[in-house]
């Protein structure tokens, strides 16, 4: 949640909204789009209080809350710092300008974290953006903001939704997932981890943690939020219909939905290896509170999503550096790995499962998709067959020439 606002004047520096005071002139108490005269359903006197009331509805869903806070915080900072006007005075034209701003947040030193790094919200180098947003991320941001504006209208705080005038265009679903690592690139990532130093206790701790993290991401298709929000006590063992003991991982994921993931022998071997290095028994016990991934140094507390993202990016960056060292012919693949993020691992898991002839219904259930249509986007083998057939049979024009 937004924390209490420090009583200092609004400056030109960009920081989380909890760290500065918005002067009354632009705090929204006199916003031109306020629903004055109507009976409000929320006790909000300014934009900040109204936003808090909206966000409170998502406080029990950490991932959704964090995503929604991020988008509304960006808009609030842009409105007050860039336009010097309250959020409740924004017009349709202002929000069109904001969409262009999302594609290229300028000036970059004010809005974008430098050096390709992500900083915690409490860090002095924190900025609202890690870089320009892709068209898909821009659209998602505006969908979230439209949800907020609509709710504030229904709550009697705003007179109208400035985004309701926007042209509604359906987003075409991409025919296939493309942001994933092919088998050869995934093998390069594994080689990077395996080449990590293991001489000291701390080096071994980093090595085993990386092995375990990437195993979780690949074999289970977990999101980063699921890695940090679930515990080792979510593993459990039960006999199947033939009496053979099978391990499962029960995950609470996106939308607070629970799903069961088959914990394969390979996964449990990696878990045992990781736990043994941390001085824990090989297998977890029921309801054990140990986080799925642990900080270096023996502390038993959950890691932040930013920290886990940073681990993944470092491994990808090291892999890209190794590929670049192979020579100019590997420049393209190196750039692809360098651009990869933690969510690419989920796409990699889904793509490799789907293309290894695993039943798509099983892939759907493991990844937690609502529809088999979503899962089918990971199936690239049919595209490969189509390309092969086209290459072989669609040759008439070439032969005539």
TrEMBL record:
InterPro entries: CB (IPR044068), DNA_brk_join_enz (IPR011010), Integrase-like_cat_sf (IPR013762), Integrase_catalytic (IPR002104), Integrase_recombinase_N (IPR010998), Tyrosine_recombinase_XerCD (IPR050090). SUPFAM superfamilies: DNA breaking-rejoining enzymes. Residues 176-392 form the Tyr recombinase domain. It comes from the Bacteria. Gene3D superfamilies: 1.10.150.130, Intergrase catalytic core. Keywords: Cell cycle, Cell division, Chromosome partition, Cytoplasm, DNA integration, DNA recombination, DNA-binding. It is found in: Cytoplasm. The keyword Cell division applies. PANTHER family: PHAGE INTEGRASE-RELATED, TYROSINE RECOMBINASE XERC. This is Tyrosine-type recombinase/integrase. It comes from Noviherbaspirillum album.
